[in-house]
Design goal:
two-stranded antiparallel sheet; mainly alpha; about 75% helix; about 5% strand; 12 helices
């Protein structure tokens, strides 16, 4: 006769062992490379190889089940994300192209992880130059959230910023600001609620603030670490009516559009 209690216990033990072996395997794979980086022995090729390894690992975690340990996996991936983002030496070589992938897989495993959204917004929109991915990932996670979750109202606010300043969808941005205001009131965050409502009211009257969008892209250009991100920023500034002036020493100056 099958003892279901023992079966459940053995199944839980198996899940724990599998998760432990997976995490240990990834950790052991990363340790040699990290040791080389810390010893200043890594070359450009080494950073690129490590980037490809991280990309493959994220793909595996995105496709693999977490065996009920989604929160633990999301926490671990968040720490890896911070480590990846903070490694300025490696990022000066490879850029921040994996930021969107980190945020996406974290939200996939734990859509309630508010801090991941807020950190990921800047990391993905500004440093990776992919505000479209930020909005896309936020849209995947927001249906799972409620205004009762601590600081969840900020996710709508950050989404509105990306939609207004980077994506250029002022109507969708207005809707996001209205949701931020609504959730802020429920959460007791009256200051945010008032500010979001004022912005939504402004967008209802002036839905095409091209100078504000161009200014945001100029900010992105000044913070970009990757040439492809800089090109993306310049293309959008020109699209919005701004001008790019190049100096003889290679520096550029940005002239924002005069008409909103």
């Amino acid at each position: 006769m099958i003892n279901f209690n023992n079966l459940l216990k053995s199944d839980l033990l198996l899940k724990i062992v599998v998760i432990f072996l997976c995490l240990t395997g990834v950790w052991r794979l990363q340790m040699p490379q990290m040791a080389k980086i810390q010893a200043n022995q890594s070359s450009k090729e080494e950073f690129i190889r490590l980037e490809e390894q991280d990309k493959l690992s994220l793909h595996v975690w995105q496709k693999s089940p977490a065996f009920g340990f989604n929160n633990i996996l999301a926490d671990w991936l968040y720490l890896q994300f911070i480590q990846y983002f903070g490694d300025s030496t490696a990022r000066s070589v490879t850029g921040y192209q994996l930021n969107p992938d980190y945020l996406e897989v974290i939200v996939q495993h734990d859509p309630f992880f508010v801090d991941a959204y807020l950190f990921g917004s800047t990391a993905v929109s500004l440093f990776a130059g992919r505000p479209d991915r930020t909005v896309e990932i936020f849209n995947q996670g927001l249906p799972h959230l409620s205004p009762k979750l601590y600081h969840a109202e900020y996710i709508w606010l950050y989404k509105g910023v990306d939609e207004l300043l980077f994506v250029g969808d002022s109507e969708q941005a207005r809707q996001s600001y209205l949701k931020a205001s609504e959730w802020g009131k429920i959460a007791g965050n009256q200051r945010l609620a008032m500010r979001a409502q004022e912005t939504a009211d402004f967008l209802a009257k002036n839905s095409d603030s091209r100078s504000a969008q161009a200014s945001a892209w100029a900010l992105l250009y000044s913070n970009a670490k990757d040439d492809s991100v800089r090109k993306l920023a310049i293309d959008n500034i020109i699209r919005l009516g701004g001008k790019i002036n190049s100096a003889q020493n290679g520096a550029i100056s940005i002239q924002l559009p005069k008409v909103d």
